[in-house]
Amino acid sequence: DTREPTFGVPALWISPVLKDEARAAGYTVVDPGTVVATHLSETVRRHAPSLLTRQAVQELLDHVKANQPAVLEGLIPALLPLGAVHKVLQLLLAEEVSIRDLPTILETLCDYAALTKDPAVLTEWVRATIPAAVIHPYLGGAKALRPLLLSSVAERLLRAGLKVGEGAGTLVLEPRVVQALVDGVARALERAHPTEGRPCLLCAQELRPHLRRLLDRSFPHLGVLAFAEVPSPVTLQSSVSGEVDPAA
User: Fold this and answer.
1) Is the Cβ–Cβ distance between 148 and 200 less than 8 Å?
2) Which helix (H) or strand (E) element contains residue 189?
3) What does the mean pLDDT of the chain come to?
């Protein structure tokens, strides 16, 4: 018995002589070298935020300044300190969002830094401007996305606990409600069809960051995306079997 490193699902090590039998039984069979490589890449992915040091961010910014100086003009330190930019990039990496398009990220920070200095809120604005990078880890073949969706009961419970305030507000739920939602996600994942991309849950923009924090410990491999983060060329494929229902 083992656990598959990409999705965290139960798996089995088998003798090579049994691989044909396993495939015939409907199992996905992966060779040991690929498993090790995947495990190493997953380890790097999970620790990417801490691997991105402030010095590394400064070097990235220096590169942008040398090639596209207008992008950085007036941003640091006039609108945001280096630490805030560093935190935004770490928050993006924590959810597997590529920061390769750094100029677009910096332009977005320039546009919204006058409205808020909260890195968490700024990160949500940045995600909206780079949807292709946000959604890439979760796409299957032919640019298709097969997400979990909240049932009307689950969404009503979450909205009832959402308290509007400074920044993104807060989500206040009773422990029994939290457990019901976690159990609902677990059941939906068990029922959902296997996909080529990582599993994800699609929800309203105002719920997304709160739901991500609520589920992160129990489902670190589950992405939480907002409907607004799905680019128009992407095809959505959903079904009742992938619905998160805490009352089920």
Assistant:
1) yes
2) helix 175-191
3) 88
Q: Which of 192, 88, 75, 200 is nearest to 145 (CA)?
A: 200
Q: What CA–CA distances, in Å, run from 132 to 96, 127, 234?
A: 12, 9, 9
Q: What is the DSSP letter of 172?
A: -
Q: Is 163 exposed, middle or buried (0-12, 13-18, 19+ CB in 10 A)?
A: exposed
The residue type of 2 is T
**pLDDT tens, 76-104?**
989 999 999 999 999 999 998 999 999 99
Host H or E run for residue 129 = helix 119-129
pTM (2 decimals)? 0.81
Asked if residues 215 and 185 have their Cβ atoms less than 8 Å apart, the reply is yes
Question: For the stretch 180-193, what's the b/e string if a residue is b when 16 or more beta carbons lie within 10 angstroms of its beta carbon?
Answer: bbbebbebbbeebe
pLDDT in tens, 134-144: 998 888 766 78
